[in-house]
Amino acid sequence: MLGYVLGRLLAAIPIFILVAIFIFSLVHLTPGDPAVLLAGDNANPQQVEKIRERLHLDEPLIVQFGIWAGNALQFDLGESIYSNKPVTQLIAQRIEPTFVLAAVTLFLTVAIAVPLGVIAAWRANGWIDRGIMAFAVLGFSVPVFVIAYLLVYFFAVSLRWFPVQGYKPLSNGLLTTLHSVTLPSIALALVFAALIARVTRAAMLEALSENFTRTARAKGLGTFRILVIHALKSAGIPVITVIGIGFATLVGGVVVTESVFNIPGIGRLTVDAITRRDYPVVQGVILFFSALLILINLLIDLSYALFDPRVKG
Amino acid sequence: MTGYLVLENVGKTYTLKPAKIGGGVRHVHAVDGVNLEVARGETLGLVGESGCGKSTLAKLIMHLEVPTGGRVVIDGVDHSRLRGPALKQARRNFQMIFQDPQASLNPRMKARAIIGEILGNYGKASSQRVDELAALVGLSDFHLDRYPHQLSGGQCQRIGIARAIALNPGLIIADEPVSALDVSIQAQILNLIGRLRQQLNLTMVFISHDLSVVSHVADRVAVMYLGRIVEIGRTESLFRNPRHPYTRMLLEAVPQPTPAKRHARAAVAGELPSPIDPPSGCHFRTRCAFAGDECSSNVPKLRPADSPHMVACHKAETIASSLNMNVA
């Protein structure tokens, strides 16, 4: 098992290096001189030259990459052009709302999608199944922001159960925070849940047609035990994989949702940085999300061993 | 004779969706009015080609499928109408040994958990009993702490057998229990099943397409063709003196290992017709050399040939005398 974990960890390193190279190239792939770009429209040649020197843009590309990667390893991602604050500090300030939003969304998604998928497979082709799948198709056909505005209209504007927008930090208490992220989480979870429910149903249908499921019935086991202990555990791998892949989509959804609900998270930071052409921040955020996704995929790989004893190092 | 297992006119019809838009609903008569009795402690062999309804019949007895007609009575209880907790309690009394031993075990559970689960399900969880069962089927601690994929087919089947006998059932349905195993392992498993049958006084339905295996274990043999039982009798009687032309065809198809014993035989002719639209009257008439008008108009009933040997064929006597003439 330890060997399996180490192997997976080592395999993540080259992926991360590739991602780093790509992010580094971002500034250099943009048309025009990065120094001019960074200096802004009203800069004089001296200022451009200063920036060029400060950012080592006069060095060969490989050296630049070395300096940049070395700094990144020490959690120095440069400074924001707009606010002159360190990028790591900006990310750290914005991480809490995004993390809470993603965690609540993930929880809601699994809590909604997995039971729905299991029930749909159990009652395959019946009206319950059709109903759930119709909901699923609707879920990922409607864009997040449409669902978000509908939720705001009904539950915030009409019923006044939840705030229209904004985020209350955890320092105000967990319940207050959860109350403020309920609507954005539901909006995101509905889209995500639709995907997971479909995959759960498909994986469950396969597991339920396995011979060992028939054995479980012959043993006289109850429906719940057959569905959850025997079938769902065997359907777990595709489901957990899609949850992981879906997380990448979720990141995109977070950006939109944070804008709709005016939540000061990393998504907002990203959107603002892009509109201001604040390249160090854009680079930093992308690097952060990449590292996060690599970490999540690593965790998923490791979780396979939990679902299937045949997976090991 | 009141049997331990009694099947009364048991049928299973599957409804298929129309093959094309506007087409009619079609029915598959997988099992068609089967009557059977198996006495306590007796082993009935059930033979027939693939697709003849053997496995469906096994599932009906096991209540893995619900019959669309008739009654399945085990030890005096008609369990085909049972549901919920009553069905769960009834299940203790009938268990199944499956065809593909590896696939029938959950790959995510160790052997110990697989055997233990059925005990726990009936509130009888006991590691001592698991060890006892393992010893009974010739497995040790070493095997119990392994996952199915770490064990051989034969070892997996021993786990399947241990699981099946865990609650001391009266009836065991063995659906092709050795067909997935190597020949050398087949003999071991057959001997194990035979030994347990005597030790535990099991009533058994043993399904196989392999006539030599059936002749080895069964007291009586029933031959199925397209959902119906066409012949049933004591094993020796049926093998020595088959009355139904289909049984003859099956017996003649058995490979003979000794070249000297080989002689010209009628090969199995034709294919099994579709159970969606079976031939009228006698289902076998399309492959039968002796078929006449009567065979297409009337369904032959099982009737005594020489009691207790029963056959469902209008022409049984004609066939018997014509063959005797050939011999003479």
Automatic annotation (TrEMBL), chain A:
The alphabetized UniProt keywords are: Cell membrane, Membrane, Transmembrane, Transmembrane helix, Transport
Report the transmembrane regions from the record. Answer: 9-29, 99-122, 134-156, 176-197, 235-261, 281-307
Where in or outside the cell is it found? Answer: Cell membrane
* Alphabetized InterPro entries for the sequence: BPD_transp_1_N, MetI-like, MetI-like_sf
Q: How does it sit in the membrane?
A: Multi-pass membrane protein
Chief place where the protein resides: membrane
Instruction: Give the Gene Ontology MF terms in alphabetical order.
Output: dipeptide transmembrane transporter activity
Provide the ABC transmembrane type-1 domain boundaries: 95-304
Q: Does the keyword Transport apply?
A: yes
**GO CC annotations on file:** plasma membrane
State if Transport is listed as a keyword. Answer: yes
Q: Which Pfam families match?
A: BPD_transp_1, BPD_transp_1_N
What family does this chain come from, according to its entry? Belongs to the binding-protein-dependent transport system permease family.
Descriptive protein name: ABC transporter permease
Organism, by scientific name, is Flavimaribacter sediminis
Biological classification of the source: Bacteria, Pseudomonadati, Pseudomonadota, Alphaproteobacteria, Hyphomicrobiales
